[in-house]
């Protein structure tokens, strides 16, 4: 059963990837104990960084115990992707290590955790810390960002930038691990300008890490705790892998969900709420029914009939030299901004004339509320903190994906096309 170090490194990489896969795609059927099998195998084999010939018998024993564990839970794991992946992985490792399927299957020893790591169980140290599950032989996770702020402006996980109506309740995120829903209400009576007045975040129960927790914020109420009064994930051993931290009382909270590698920032700016999240791609795409992915805004963006081309409206406003609303006969805002005074005001906090700056100008013209300038400023500050690609912090062009029926005519100069859109918009007023 001897083996060289080269083969050992390959095998090590393979069984390090297994727990990552099983953490990302947890068993949907609770009686399926594949995660327990995986944890026991990982605990029994994680102590060796190099598997030499003298360690192969011990590794094969642990591997047989792993196979025996999967057979015991086979009946309850039918159709479970994690289970079938583990079974195929075991077969591959058996061949690579020249392990016999017949032999001792003693229970694997449990790895001893270093002092101070009391929040993680010794038999499943990786499950409650997403980033720790990525070893030096595995690719680092790829993080994405989504944000919602202002009247309201949306930056999706794919860095598209949209301005939307979306009045009422809309899902921002809906995957296997958490659900986020926002409610947008009119800023002024009779106005089509809306902003986020309520936010609900549901963290779903996850293995040995956290109980289901619900966070809810509303206008003038930004609590620093879940609705049950707790500030962490509950009574489970990995409870502190989910934490709420109050940064500024009544204005800024941060939620760390380490078990899914996710950071959420919620702010109250003026009377309304802003939302920003940093999340691994694997978690973003962990959706059981992929056909339903288009239902949530952070992934697919707002429906076309809910999108507003604020850049076209902004151009029209600049052309006329006076403030415009998103529709005719809107009530006057509390403070009237001209296009020039809105530009000057936004430059105080947003010196770069990107889409955050343009959103600020649009919101001041639409609402007359200087707090919307601060909302755009803090939204960009959150992007700087949360976005993994520093080259994509600023966005300069409208990034809404145009459908075939929504594209510019072939051969039309872009500047002329924008001018035509502005003229059409003015004619409709």
From TrEMBL:
Its main location: membrane. Pfam families: RGM_C, RGM_N. It is found in: Cell membrane. The keyword Cell membrane applies. Residues 142-388 form the Repulsive guidance molecule C-terminal domain. Residues 32-101 form the Repulsive guidance molecule N-terminal domain. GO terms for molecular function: coreceptor activity. It comes from the Eukaryota. One of its GO terms (biological process) is positive regulation of macromolecule metabolic process. The keyword Signal applies. Residues 1-31 form the signal peptide. Residues 101-124 are annotated as: Disordered. InterPro entries: RGM, RGM_C, RGM_N. It is a lipid-anchor; GPI-anchor. Belongs to the repulsive guidance molecule (RGM) family. This is Repulsive guidance molecule BMP co-receptor a. It comes from Cyanistes caeruleus (Eurasian blue tit). The gene is RGMA.
């Amino acid at each position: 059963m001897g083996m060289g170090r080269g083969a050992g490194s390959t095998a090590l990489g393979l069984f390090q990837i297994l727990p990552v896969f099983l953490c990302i795609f947890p068993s949907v059927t609770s009686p399926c104990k594949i995660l327990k099998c995986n944890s026991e195998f990982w605990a029994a084999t994680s102590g060796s960084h190099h598997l030499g010939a003298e360690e192969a018998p011990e590794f094969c024993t642990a591997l047989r115990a792993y196979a025996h564990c999967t057979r015991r839970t086979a009946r309850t794991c039918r159709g479970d992707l994690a289970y079938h992946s583990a079974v195929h992985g075991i077969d591959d490792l058996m061949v690579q290590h020249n392990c016999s399927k017949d032999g001792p299957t003693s229970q694997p020893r449990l790895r001893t955790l270093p002092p101070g790591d009391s929040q993680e169980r010794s038999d499943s140290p990786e499950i409650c810390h997403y980033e720790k599950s990525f070893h030096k032989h595995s690719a680092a996770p790829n993080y994405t960002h989504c944000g919602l702020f202002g009247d309201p402006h949306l930056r999706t996980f794919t860095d598209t930038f949209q301005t939307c109506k979306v009045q009422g309740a809309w899902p921002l995120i809906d995957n296997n691990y958490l659900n986020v829903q926002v409610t947008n209400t009119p800023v002024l009576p009779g106005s089509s300008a809306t902003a986020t007045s309520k936010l609900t975040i549901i963290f779903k129960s996850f293995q040995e890490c956290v109980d289901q927790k619900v966070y809810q914020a509303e206008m003038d109420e930004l609590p620093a705790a879940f609705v049950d009064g707790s500030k962490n994930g509950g009574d489970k051993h990995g409870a502190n892998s989910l934490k709420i931290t109050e940064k500024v009382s009544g204005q800024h909270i941060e939620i760390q969900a380490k078990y899914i590698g996710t950071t959420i920032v919620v702010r109250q700016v003026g009377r309304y709420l802003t939302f920003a999240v940093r999340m691994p791609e694997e978690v973003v795409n962990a959706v059981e029914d992929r056909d339903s992915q288009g239902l949530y805004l952070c992934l697919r963006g707002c429906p076309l009939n809910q999108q507003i081309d604020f850049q076209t409206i902004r151009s029209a406003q600049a052309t006329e030299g006076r403030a415009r609303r998103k529709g005719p006969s809107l009530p006057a805002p509390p403070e009237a901004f001209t296009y020039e005074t809105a530009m000057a005001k936004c430059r105080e906090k947003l010196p770069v004339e990107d889409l955050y700056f343009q959103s600020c100008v649009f919101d001041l013209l639409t609402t007359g509320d200087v707090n919307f300038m601060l909302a755009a400023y803090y939204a960009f500050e959150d992007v700087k903190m949360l976005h993994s690609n520093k080259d994509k912090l600023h966005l300069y062009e409208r990034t809404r994906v145009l459908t075939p029926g929504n594209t510019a005519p072939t051969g039309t100069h872009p500047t002329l096309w924008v001018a035509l859109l502005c003229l059409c918009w003015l004619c409709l007023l």
